[in-house]
TrEMBL record:
It comes from Sesamum latifolium. It comes from the Eukaryota. This is Rhamnogalacturonan lyase domain-containing protein. Residues 193-259 form the Rhamnogalacturonan lyase domain. GO terms for molecular function: carbohydrate binding; catalytic activity. InterPro entries: Carb-bd-like_fold, Gal_mutarotase_sf_dom, GH-type_carb-bd, Polysacch_Lyase_4, RG-lyase_II, Rhamnogal_lyase. GO terms for biological process: carbohydrate metabolic process.
Length: 312
């Protein structure tokens, strides 16, 4: 079976019996939706996680459907698979938080082929770890992602644009949370999201869309270590699940090759005017606890319970 991979231009970085490394490039223009590489395959099963996987509508099913309030949402009226009739196909159904987007893929039984997107690092993604972002919307988490994450940065790429592990640096520290309403003295911030992003004001990492970002979570004592940081100057940010506000370290930090920067005296003083009288929801940058009403009965709910084994 031979497939054509469509790209504007490419060059072979390395090619031998053990490895082939190819670079695809395309000059981006404002308003363009073209990608540097297009793999034109038609898969009919998608897996985003162990719980989120399903048979997929085909591209022609959208053409015969009804476009709803926005063009991405299409009501399937005459799909190839009759089970999908009445469902709404929408690429936003296949989004997830950046921190959870490690591997997803598509498979087909005829021909028996799969295509997987493995992401051992989110350093190239913007908006922070809990930003809802698209996957690619068209097997399961049985791939050894923990091994892939532990192996990052990979040692095998030869491209001069790729920054290897021995060319990177790190930063460590401890974050304390000072909220007089819950504790009389600053306490270690447990499971706090701490990250490096391009220099800016507190919270600017949420809107930044051009530079690298490196995130981790603190342990129960508020300690953290961010490894494999590309050298450069960053602001050090944090936010505490369950506590309002954004934290920014007093000074920007410069990461150099082979060094570990120690961030000292990190105390997040929670913004507060007085005691908490009542609150709606939890300040954790999630709407998980809010009520989600049932959809209109004219729309059929996606069946995400279908498992990969049903295809075997």
């Amino acid at each position: 079976m031979i497939d054509n991979l469509e790209g504007t231009s490419y060059k072979v970085i390395v090619h031998n019996e053990n490895q082939t490394e190819i670079s695809f490039t395309r000059t981006w223009e404002v308003g363009s939706s073209n990608a540097p590489l297009n793999v034109d395959k038609r898969f009919h099963y998608m897996a985003m996680s162990d719980e989120r996987q399903r048979l997929m509508p085909m591209p022609n099913d959208r053409l015969t459907g009804e476009t709803l309030d926005y063009k991405e949402a299409v009501l399937l009226k005459n799909p190839t698979n009759p089970e999908f009739k009445g469902e709404v196909d929408d690429k936003y159904f296949y989004s997830c938080e950046n921190k959870d987007n490690q591997v997803h893929g598509w498979i087909s039984s005829d021909p028996p082929v799969g295509f997987w997107m493995i992401t051992p690092s989110n350093e190239f993604r913007t908006g922070g770890p809990v930003k809802q972002d698209l996957t690619s919307h068209v097997g399961p988490y049985v791939l050894a992602m923990q091994k892939e994450v532990a192996s990052w940065p990979y040692s095998f790429p030869f491209s001069e644009d790729y920054v290897k592990s021995n060319q990177r640096g790190a930063i460590s520290g401890q974050l304390l949370v000072d909220d007089w309403f819950t504790n009389k003295q600053p306490m270690p911030g447990s499971s706090v999201f701490v990250g490096l992003a391009p220099p800016g004001v507190a919270g600017s990492w949420q809107l930044e869309s051009k530079g690298y970002q490196f995130w981790t979570q603190t342990d129960q004592n508020g300690n953290f270590l961010i490894k494999n940081v590309i050298p450069g100057t960053y602001s050090l940010f944090a936010w505490v699940p369950g506590t309002l506000g954004d934290y920014k370290y007093a000074d920007d930090v410069t990461i150099s090759q082979g060094t570990i920067v120690e961030a000292r005296n990190m105390i997040f003083k929670a913004p507060r005017k007085g005691e908490t009288l009542w609150e709606i929801g939890i300040p954790d940058r999630s709407a998980a606890e809010f009520f989600i009403p049932d959809p209109s009965p004219e729309f059929k709910i996606h069946n995400i319970e279908l498992k990969l084994k049903s295809m075997i």
